[in-house]
Amino acid sequence: MYSVARGCAKGELDNCGCDRKIRINEPTDDFEWGGCSDNVRYGNKFSREFVDSGETKEVPEGLMNLWNNEAGRKAVKANIKRVCKCHGVSGSCSARICWRNMESFRATGSYLFKRYDGASHVKMSRKKHKLKPVNKFMKKPTKKDLVYLKQSPDFCLNNTKYGSLGTRNRRCKRDSDGLDGCVLMCCGRGFQTIPRVITEDCECKFYWCCYVLCKKCTHRMDMHYCN
């Protein structure tokens, strides 16, 4: 949807162009609608026809995909901003023309990632072909929420069924906040630090033509491993 809507506005697609829907200004507005807006309406329509066409409401997976597809479209529509440009003599802003653009793809992705963290665990209601929370005490997901049917496997522990070796004894980086950091990789089990003596190539030089000669350098390094 995002790429199609932006492609329409850029003139990259034959079947669509800018969204030139006439918008009515409020009395308090100090601008006029105009310019070339991202064609979110066409992108939304295209997404429904193309992405949703292979899904069915007869099976849980189809219902889940249709729900999440719609949540994704709503995420794009929730991240639309007004962009304006001034027109006037000698840099004045006697007239201000505005149009609507989608936020950056990264901003929309971050919005969806927050929804992903709070996704609802659901199951199919056989009577109505609808989704409902697995836990009856949990609130029903809104149309903006993401849903899932199965719990993700715990990759922190050894699980031969899913081919996961777990993270025990995995090397990690103590000071990293990323996925390679000990805090995340070790899954709260802590880690141990073992000093190692490392020998590696150093002071390498290129000689014409054509080979490289290196010295061997030895140094001490602390290695961190998950418990």
From TrEMBL:
What one GO molecular function would you report for this record? cytokine activity
Q: What is its main location?
A: secreted
Q: Which GO terms describe its biological process?
A: canonical Wnt signaling pathway; cell fate commitment; neuron differentiation
| InterPro entries from the UniProt entry | Wnt, Wnt_C, Wnt_CS
Against Pfam families, the record matches this protein to: wnt (PF00110)
UniProt xrefs under SMART domains: WNT1 (SM00097)
Q: Which UniProt keywords apply?
A: Developmental protein, Disulfide bond, Extracellular matrix, Lipoprotein, Secreted, Wnt signaling pathway
- Cellular component terms, GO, for this chain's entry? extracellular space
Q: What is the annotated localization of this protein?
A: Secreted, Extracellular space, Extracellular matrix
Protein role: Ligand for members of the frizzled family of seven transmembrane receptors.
Q: Quote the PANTHER family the UniProt record gives.
A: PROTEIN WNT (PTHR12027:SF99), WNT RELATED (PTHR12027)
* Similarity section: Belongs to the Wnt family.
| Record-given protein name | Protein Wnt
Task: Write down the species.
Answer: Acanthosepion pharaonis
Q: What is the lineage of its organism?
A: Eukaryota, Metazoa, Spiralia, Lophotrochozoa, Mollusca
